[in-house]
């Protein structure tokens, strides 16, 4: 880490709340259950809002809670303007937003524009109307090549991206067969989703998280993908004909105009945050130009290994490219689609054991301080503040992820990071459901969840929960952590160090041996209590710098 570099200044409009916010992702089904059925719901989220306020986050993002047959746990939407009975009612949502705003918490809702459910009224009408009907034009229906699909595209969840219907035609599904893709070249689709945006903005949502924001448009004619894999178990995330079409940027300009209209009319900024699964950082930055999405998740940070050189390159690329576009970087360590960071850093994997959890915990604590010290916003996933590892040994007959079933069990799926949260150690379902409930949860909680329960974490001064609370409190108190200033410091191999705003520094030792702390000053916070003049292996510190340092 020899050279010193600086993050370029932000350009464009006055920074909004989202530029430096910490948002907590709520997987509603697994957060908190209010009615005792073992399934999380909106009233359960509402009851736990004080916990989120005390944690110190600025808002929450709700995974889909819409009416759905739940073949992909809500990402197969049958009605974009309602609430699934498992999760409550529209009144439940309104109460949640009202109470969140009273606590000065923003609310972001998840929108799924690439595909819907096979039970969506449009898709049911398309099936009933038959080949050549206008109803089928809202989707991608096509004739096959004999008994073969129309082209060779692969589903992200494994297998072909095409499903045949009884009249002989096929429809495109980038994900599960129960999730038909919309045809975004059809004007009805664009108009319907503008109504969806307005519906949730009118109900008080502060922003939208946009699922598969690089999808939507497909290449004209749906040509074969020349490099498509032939493995039936392999999805195809880089098909150039299915992803990142130029026309998709027109969609985000249209949505941004709606968001700006509400911002100007109500005085409350409405934000669009995209899930864009592109590996090219330059292309990713194009999605957050000043007239498109406000932010996109920077997944390269999540994908990076625990290696100082790799992290340096990823952070530098994010700050120079994403922030340079006029936006700010949205850092991510965990989400509902990936094994939990503690298990990743421990060398574990679903179906292959948990790995060295002590090592994983040390690295996850250090990674949290690294992420929360960087310029931009951070998106936390429920349970990461409790130091939850991935649940790697769920019985196969209980797994619900379509990825597991479509690959015949070859790909374990994402259930292991979606197990319901533990709130209290001395309770049959760890406080997830109220007393007197059935005593089961939709996915089983392992016995060792007791050690990660919120009440146990609060009792331990050195817990992961206290580390997150202290870090988030400092983010609010220290002006340097609200600035866009960033400067790398020279360090020895295996170590990262940088300053923010001239009065704050962060140092991270990614190596397996103790090193000298490259920053001189009083410690504000440390991931390892033994940190001081020496940084223990796999540790991070925040340091207050003297004036002029």
UniProtKB/TrEMBL annotation:
One of its GO terms (molecular function) is hydrolase activity. Belongs to the glycosyl hydrolase 13 family. The keyword Hydrolase applies. This is Glycoside hydrolase family 13 protein. InterPro entries: GH, GH13_cat_dom, O16G_dom_2. CDD domains: AmyAc_OligoGlu_TS. Pfam families: Alpha-amylase. Residues 25-418 form the Glycosyl hydrolase family 13 catalytic domain. Keywords: Hydrolase. Gene3D superfamilies: Glycosidases (3.20.20.80), Oligo-1,6-glucosidase, Domain 2 (3.90.400.10). The keyword ATP-binding does not apply.
